[in-house]
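Morning run. Coffee first, then this:
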Amino acid sequence: MAITIIKPGILDTLQDLGRYGYSHLGINPGGAMDRYAAQAANLLVGNETPVAVLEMHFPAAQILFEQNALISITGADFCPMLNDEQVPRWHPVVVRKNTILHFPKLQWGARCYLAVHGGFCVPPWLNSYSTNLKAGAGGFAGRKLEKGDELPFGENHMYISGLLKEGKDYEILRWQVATGAMYEHPNEIYIIKGQEWDQLAPQSQQDMLENNFIIHPFSDRMGYQLKGVPLQRMQRNELLSSGVSFGTVQLLPGGQMIVLMSDHQTTGGYPRLAHVISAHLPKLAQLRPSDCIQFKMTDIATAENMLMAQQQELNILRRACYERLNQVVC
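And here it is:
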């Protein structure tokens, strides 16, 4: 055993970076909503980025550690506590056996991530560990975690027990991820033009870029339904269904929009007005129902540069964490 769920959260699932190559069969990629936070969580504990992490929504689970573990918690701030003491996010933390992790308060964001050194030992489905709730496959038995579920760890390559001091339930390691630039201006979401952008009436194009849109309470991992100024197309022709992706912004028949999220369908017939740039998907994933979005148009070159800068950050983090972990465990 490794961890046991002693009280389930509203939606706790195992996720990795997605299940690609099966869209032609109607199987969407899925995967973590905030992939930056998921990757950073893995790097902090010495894992490679594709390793599965636990994605949690608030209220989140209470978790009992059945053995010593090296963990990190990233993403949303649910005020994580080990027993009765709050611990920081975006740090590696060594946890003693029989310690309980719980999340008493929502401070910011929508989804937080728990990574453990060695990952979680579950069988892959179609080359991914992500949970596909619609198919009932992948992750832990194809479902969200429930009370009493036991998740074993994968192979541990580090001797971490020696890092725990006498009488302490945990030890916070000194390094951390600086995330200020990643989530700043959280409501400003950059987009590039979609295939049907030019079908929007000029006034609607202006309305989309000058007004705020509120995330509807019915929004979930499949899509964010938005409420705001109704938008109008200049023509009402029917469209053939075509491929869609995480971040596609579609126009619904009533004039409102939906932003497709990680568990989106593989094809759709609604007009594709825009696409959220990949570098802004992490902060989009941390918005909650009733939060607002303000779209800002950009170009492909800017979007590519921002994504490359983000990937460079993760590469630097990988090297730095590897060196720091080797220093403290050797």
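Helices lie at 35-44, 202-210, 281-285, 300-329. Good start to the day.
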